[in-house]
Amino acid sequence: MVKSFNLKNKVVLVTGGYGHLGKAIVDSLLYHEAKVYVLGRDKEKFIQKFKEKLENLRFTYCDVSDLDSVKKAFSNIYQSEARLDVLINNAFYSRGQSPEEMNDEDFLYGLEGTLGSIFKCTREIIPYFKKQGFGKIINVSSMYGVVAPDFRIYDETPAYLNPPHYGAAKAGVIQLTKYYASYLGKYNIQVNVVTPGPFPSENVQKDTSFIKKLSEKTLVNRIGKPEDLAGVFVFLSSDAADFITGQNIIVDGGWTVR
What we know:
- This protein has seven helices and seven strands.
- With 258 residues, the chain is of the alpha/beta class.
- The radius of gyration is 18 Å and the shape is globular.
- It has a seven-stranded parallel sheet with strand order 3-2-1-4-5-6-7, sandwiched between helices.
- It has one domain: NAD(P)-binding Rossmann-like Domain (Rossmann fold), CATH 3.40.50.
- Helix 1 crosses helix 7 (226-237) and helix 4 (104-132) runs parallel beside helix 5.
- Strand 1 (11-15), helix 1 and strand 2 form a beta-alpha-beta unit.
- Belongs to the short-chain dehydrogenases/reductases (SDR) family.
- InterPro entries: NAD(P)-bd_dom_sf, SDR_fam.
- It comes from Shivajiella indica.
- This is SDR family oxidoreductase.
């Protein structure tokens, strides 16, 4: 039996699915015929990003900082579809940046928004997956959850400096993924993590000098395009990935190799 990448009839939930990378992930899932629910707080942003109304695309309000909101979103989608196949934990929230001047409250807020929110969504999806006997969770980490920043890149552009709680929390996402992969394997639930490398936003890309420095850190001498990242989410959402769990797939142009 050949296991397919086709996602027809699969219900995929994507938190933060209208952001810089989220949009490309959603577009690729739709191309492969998944029914996609974008979970977020701002329906207007969703409408702006997905101007064309598509039959297999839905918006569901969900604030990942609010447990009741997460529970309600999952419950409403399950009641509508009678199944949940894949949860992609892409959303995060944070504040503060300075490695020396960040206060305790901002540090803890960033940990909660980057790691705690994924824990919350993971915990709340488990009862649905156990009930139906299958499910996949795909978390999103960062290359700075694997390696420390090269601070020389940011000497002339301190506004883009990666904050200390971000990398710490993203490293936690990788370990949390392994933990739940181990815990949920016996229930036929796969948990994996995707770790993006340099995928700066369109606004940041206007700074060509900074983009050159990022590009030179990769082995392919360029930054990532959102579509470079999307395919791995299709693969991990598909039946072809049924025997893959607890893995960290790094999509970084080779940044973390050296």
